[in-house]
Amino acid sequence: MSENVRGEESLLSRGSFFWYSWPGKEKGMKKIEKNVSGFRAANPEKLRRARFIDRPNRFLVRCELEGRPVRAFLPNPGRLWEILLPGTELILSEDGGNETRKTAFTAIAARRGETVVLLHTHITNDAAEWLIRTGRVPGLEGWAVRKREASFGRSRFDFLLEKEGRLLLLEVKSCTLFGHELAMFPDAPSDRGRRHVEELGKLAGEGYGAAVLFLVQSSRPSCFLPDFHTDPKFAESLFRAKDRLRLFPLAVEWNAALELTGEPKLLRVPWGVYERHGGDRGDCLVIVDAREKGFWAAAFPAENLSSFSGKALRRNGKDFPFPPESGGSVKVIPIRSSLPGSKNINDSLASCASGEVVKDGVRFFAFSEPPMANPGFVEMLLHRRTDLLLSELP
C-alpha cells in the first residue's frame, strides 16, 4: 500500500463527525437553524438588538439592551476595531445563563452601516458547510463533506471533503475586516492561522489536496489579501503557499434576520499589491495615553516597521519626542505601504482631533477619548490599510 493511500486512510479514520440536522436526519446530531430559503445563523425568536458600550476583554462585551446594561459573550478573538465602535448595533442571542457561563447573551453579529457582519466564528463553519453541501462555493461544486474536525498527524482541520475518490483538507477562516473594495485576514496576529497555512502548504507539497476558505462577511469587496499590516508572518506564509494551496476568498451577505442571502462570489486576490506594498516600511501611527489629559496621536514615515512597538519607543525615549504629559501606555499601529502617506494621515488626524502640538518636527494631535473609539480616526486607518492600496489596479 502506498504512503498516500495509508495517509488517506489515516485521515478517514480520525476526527469527529459533525453532520447537519434537518428534517429526517437522525436524532442526536447537532441542529443547525435552517429555513426554507437557506441557512440561518440563529433562532430569530431569540434575537435581540443592543448597542455596544465597551469590551472589557476579548470574549466579553458590554452593551445597552432596552435601556439597561448587559454583558454578552463574544465568540470572536479578533480586534474588530472598525466594528466595535460606541453605539454600534449588536445582534444578540438570548441563550439564558447557567452554571457553565456567566452571561445570558451571545453577540452573534453586528451592523456596520448597511452591512450585517457575522461575528460568531463557530457559526461561520456551519455556514461554510451549508454552502459546500448546496454547491454554492465556486470551484467546490460536487465536493461532499466527509468529516468535520478531521485530524491529520498532530493537526486538526475544519473539514475533510471528498469527490470521486479524491480527498481535500479544508480550513475555514472568518474575515470581518473589509473596506469598500478590499477584504483582509486576519485582523489580529494569528499564530494558529499561520500554522494551519504552513501545515496545509506542506501537505499540498506532498501530494495531498489542501485548501483555505476565507468567508468574507460582506458582499461589498471585490478583492482579498492577507493582512500584512497586522500579521506579516501569516501574509508571507500564505504568499509562499499560494501556488500549492487552493484559496477560496468567498464573499457572502447576511440580512437582518441573520439569513444568508444573495449569491456568494469569489474575490480576486491581487498578489501584485502585496508584492509592492507588503514590505517592512510605510508609516508608523502612534497613540499615546496621556491619562487624565486624554490621548495623543502622531504619524511618521518609517523603515523596519516590525522593530517599532510601544515598549521599544519607551525604551528609546530619547529618540522619540514624546508630547507633554504622556506617561501612559503607547500603541503602535503599522501601515505598510510603498505610497508616501504620513502627510495625508496627519491631515486626516487634524480633521478629527481637538488640538495639535508640534515637538521636534513631529505633529501630535489631541483626543479627549481613545482614538480607536473615534469613527473618523478608524475610517482613516481602515482606508489607508485597505482600499488605498488598490488605487493603482487597472
UniProtKB/TrEMBL annotation:
<protein>
    <recommendedName>
        <fullName>Sugar fermentation stimulation protein homolog</fullName>
    </recommendedName>
</protein>
<dbReference type="GO" id="GO:0003677">
    <property type="term" value="F:DNA binding"/>
</dbReference>
<feature type="domain" description="Sugar fermentation stimulation protein C-terminal">
    <location>
        <begin position="123"/>
        <end position="249"/>
    </location>
</feature>
<dbReference type="InterPro" id="IPR040452">
    <property type="entry name" value="SfsA_C"/>
</dbReference>
<comment type="similarity">
    <text>Belongs to the SfsA family.</text>
</comment>
<dbReference type="Pfam" id="PF03749">
    <property type="entry name" value="SfsA"/>
</dbReference>
<dbReference type="InterPro" id="IPR041465">
    <property type="entry name" value="SfsA_N"/>
</dbReference>
<dbReference type="InterPro" id="IPR005224">
    <property type="entry name" value="SfsA"/>
</dbReference>
<feature type="domain" description="SfsA N-terminal OB">
    <location>
        <begin position="53"/>
        <end position="118"/>
    </location>
</feature>
<dbReference type="Pfam" id="PF17746">
    <property type="entry name" value="SfsA_N"/>
</dbReference>
